[in-house]
Amino acid sequence: MIINVLTILYNTSLSESMTLKSILNTKLDSIQLNIIIWNNGPSLLSQDDIDNYLQNCQTKKVSTYIYQDVRNASLSKIYNHFIKKLNYDFFVIFDQDSNLESSFFQNIYSNKDYAIICPAVFPKQKIDKQCFPSDIEQREKVVPIGEFTLGNTRTINSGTALSRNLVENLQIKYNYVFDEKFAFYHTDHRLFDLINATTETTNLKGLCIGKMYHDMTCELSLEQLSERARLEIAYAKMLMRIYRANNPKNQIRRNLFYAYKMKKKDHLNFNSFIKLLKCVITKEHPRSVVSIDKNIQPTDTNI
Asked: What is the pTM assigned to this prediction?
């Protein structure tokens, strides 16, 4: 089985990423694992850091490709760029701060007939509280370990294995998998909205198996979040509101009023409020304008 793993780094080194460290501690029997690492900035990785990680991957016989683009590009565009390369059976996305069980990839190998395979996600802030996967509408209603129907469910991007069949069905329907009007937060929620709205995918079966611990922004209070984080969450909530509406073209006036309510509720300053209003008008995240070179090559690899 071929599994491609895409891990996005931001403001961290390879050696500091819990995800990258735990990947190399997993069991890989009968699996060809390809690790794609995208450093999204704000600075380049040190060469010593790169050389050490590539050596560790070589020891584990894991093919690794490192890309560096310090512009903080939209995650949905990064995901789509690599998911289109269909030389895999499953495609797995990770943030930089997920803690995997050693059986993570064996769980995928042993359940290859499912469209999606994902762990039960527990926030590092509250390790006894499962938060995903959950009901697509009722977020507090979590999906237990076991089989589920894709159209009724959503989970986070990190740790979710997407089958090649699911990816191909979405690409045929939309010509993409991740909606590039979204950039950071809620790219995953939007994905599951598309899965639910697609006849070829909504009734497919997924499997929740194993556990994963992950830093969850939703477990933090507004006071613990930076202005930038609060704005990013506001963008995501606004875009979900726009694209879940029956007729978004006729909703601008309502959405502008909703933006004003969000300014007060989410404690946004005036500059952030103006940026949110622009999002209402353009109906896309401002980082959506940043494109990725289709012919971009890795800066470093152990191949």
From this structure: 0.93
